[in-house]
Amino acid sequence: MYDCALGKAFMTRLLVSLCACSLLLAAGSPVLGDCPANRTFVVTNSYDIDGEPAPELFVTVGYTYTFQLNNPSSHPFMLTASPNGGAGTSALPLSSGVSCVCQGCGTCTRRTITFTPAASLAGQTVYYQCTVHVVMGNAIHIAPAPAITVNTLPQPLNRCAGESAQFTVSATSNETQTLSYQWRKGADAVVNLSGHIAGATSPVLTITGLTTQDAGAYTCVMTAPCKTVTTAPAALAVNTCCPADLGMRSGVAGSDGVLDNNDFIAFIDLYFAGDPRADRGGQGGVPGADAEFDNNDFVVYINEYFAGC
Fold first, then answer.
1. Which of 1, 121, 177, 259 is 20 to 30 A from 225, alpha carbon to alpha carbon?
2. CA atoms within 13 A on the CB side of 47
3. 3-state SS, residue 267
4. Contact partners, residue 105, CB within 8 Å, separation at least 6
5. Cα R_g (the chain), whole angstroms
6. Which of 162, 177, 64, 68 is nearest to 116 (CA)?
7. Residue stretches of the chain with pLDDT short of 50
8. Residue range 148-239 in CATH 1.20.1600.10
9. Residue 190 in contact with residue 184, Cβ under 8 Å?
């Protein structure tokens, strides 16, 4: 009984052995999941790689792939949008990132073609083909360049000693793996310290009980398997503040070195927001936080205000 599949395979191998522009791409061709890199492919008269005919290629926008044509045939080699190839097939235009249209057809002066996929080809598939024989090449899948998009940047902070500071970053990656984070102060990696620093390797860095030693420029390094991005520095200023200096112009929370109505406005806003900065007094108006918001906080704050700085 004739086995159609085996017959088809045999005829394919026979055609392959007869076609002078059959292709072999050198061992080490990239596979899906590798980080992108500039690569060189050697085109020869054989058609298989490890027994597999016409390997599919995975390339990335912006990287350069060189096809070295060690094929003695005069049949033109080209990159094309056609899965078939053969006579009448159009090569990719120069605007797609090819160095020349096709080897052997008058547009390439050397036996190499380089391909630096244009951004417009991201997510598409093109093909390497012979212009004489059909279906001799295979697919080239084009991935977008690895990218990390930063949606929220850490902002500069101005805090008093003893208060808390929090830096936040938000980002996404077009790679499948989760981003990793590392906060840095200047050139040094921030490390977690119980009761003082938390989130050194997370999107949110929290520093409590600030001291002047915490002041500096903070950045976040975000890393995906094939891409790393560092945010612009965000400064943390730590001041020795007057305890009652809570408000700036228009009652915006923050220290401005002046005691006035803005401080009362800021205190009231912080109080009703449940902000720890308004937790000033315990039972009987004794200074100190007690995790409760009541009249004792007002008593202590008023005493601090009239005590001045």
1. 121
2. 19
3. helix
4. 76, 78, 91, 131
5. 33
6. 64
7. 1-33, 47-51
8. no
9. yes
- State the DSSP code for 98: B
Other Cβ atoms closer than 10 A to 293: 19
The CA-to-CA distance between both ends of the chain, in Å, stands at 102
∠50-54-57 over CA atoms, to 5°?
Answer: 95
Q: Give the H or E element holding residue 224.
A: strand 216-224
**Domain boundaries along the sequence of the chain:** 4-143, 148-239, 249-307
Token pair for 153: 């940047």
Nearest to 47 by CA among 119, 105, 113, 133: 133
Q: Does 4-143 match 148-239 in CATH topology?
A: yes
Q: What span, in angstroms and rounded, lies between the C-alpha atoms of 228 and 147? A: 8
Q: 188-205: per-residue pLDDT in tens?
A: 999 999 999 999 999 999
Instruction: Please give the Cα distance from 100 to 115 (Å, whole number).
Output: 9
Q: Distance of CA 152 to CAs 197, 224, 261, Å?
A: 21, 17, 33
Q: Give the CATH class of 4-143.
A: mainly beta
pLDDT score recorded for residue 141: 93
Q: Which residue has the tokens 């929290």?
A: 206
Tokens matching residue 81:
């949008």
